[in-house]
């Protein structure tokens, strides 16, 4: 597709989306305000033009955009109202790219366009009670039975599961292989017999994480993503796109073009805080970090799109994004003084959510390990279980 000019893109977006103004503020899902429909309507409006996933092929809901055109569209989308797409982010930013890299033509035709249009929500069934940071230790088993696979086991911390139609599920297909080699990836319909979703309530009153219990659920071999035993490679594609900011687009500070003070700073000033030197220094530090975080995330996303294989820059982007979120949440809460202790106080929900940001999607410690080993060239941690059968290492027989 030929590249469109900035004026052409802005004109087309104005015909389907509401423009932001200086008073527009982004909404965040949670604490009982889980509005899935706004995001679904936004994706339905943008899918025809391929505006939300422009690098995807047009037949799958994109527009075949070049990296430079994709960056331009992302920048212009910041001028318009984009709802919180949290329920759809795994499908858009992680499952979709994994299907483009590893899926069959039939899988791409069946699943990508519904993801892009918002008509299908996906979740990620990776973590288990004994396989969190050590993801390769997953124990949910899949046994082949003709043209089907029978899955049994448990997943936990499965975000979006209560909304999801499908899950991308990592399973153990050969316990006799080393733990990284005996894994296979599947697409699992959430509504089939044998799948039970139990939401977990967090301290911020969200119930976005769930436990998922799977008992002899039957999955078609047609729903296997990648080759048997290649699940770890598919999982790394999914996680690399997650660290590179998968699913996020639009975003920004909610301001109209030309507004120099970000909305979050204006909101803090509206609280009537005393703008002493220490407060101004903290605001300036967070603002500077925000800018670096945005540039880092953009670089990671651009590298991923150009190479097709997201690299370790995504780990740096995730660390910066998490720090930015936490710093802004805590400053907002402190700026509200005693009012910030109330459940309706400024920054209360963000403060209750902030600790989880360093855990979800790969802990801060895991991200630093990746940067240390793959960017700085530091020696890796000893791994005694890399070449032994998972069935032995699982029982501690090393």
Percent helix range: 25-40%
> CATH homologous superfamily of the largest domain?
Butyryl-CoA Dehydrogenase, subunit A, domain 3
Side-by-side strand order of the widest sheet: 1-4-5-8
Q: What is Rg?
A: 22 Å
**So, CATH architecture of the largest domain?**
Up-down Bundle
| Proportion of strand residues | 5-15%
What's this, in brief?
Helix content is 40%, strand content 13%. It has helices spanning 6-14, 36-46, 67-77, 89-102, 105-117, 231-243, 263-270, 277-307, 313-335, 348-357, 364-374, 390-393, and strands at 122-125, 141-145, 148-155, 166-172, 183-189, 195-200, 209-220, 224-225.
What would your notes on this structure say?
It is a single chain. The chain is of the alpha+beta class and 398 residues long. The chain folds into 3 domains: 6-121, Acyl-CoA dehydrogenase/oxidase, N-terminal domain (Butyryl-Coa Dehydrogenase, subunit A, domain 1, Orthogonal Bundle), CATH 1.10.540.10; 123-234, Butyryl-CoA Dehydrogenase, subunit A, domain 2 (Beta Barrel), CATH 2.40.110; 243-374, Butyryl-CoA Dehydrogenase, subunit A, domain 3, CATH 1.20.140. Helix content is 40%, strand content 13%. The protein has 12 helices and 8 strands. The chain has helices spanning 6-14, 36-46, 67-77, 89-102, 105-117, 231-243, 263-270, 277-307, 313-335, 348-357, 364-374, 390-393, and strands spanning 122-125, 141-145, 148-155, 166-172, 183-189, 195-200, 209-220, 224-225. It has a 4-stranded mixed sheet with strand order 1-4-5-8. A hairpin with an 8-residue loop joins β6 and β7 (209-220). The radius of gyration is 22 Å and the shape is globular. It starts with 5 loop residues before the first helix and ends in a 5-residue tail after the last helix. Mean pLDDT is 87; it is low at 250-254.
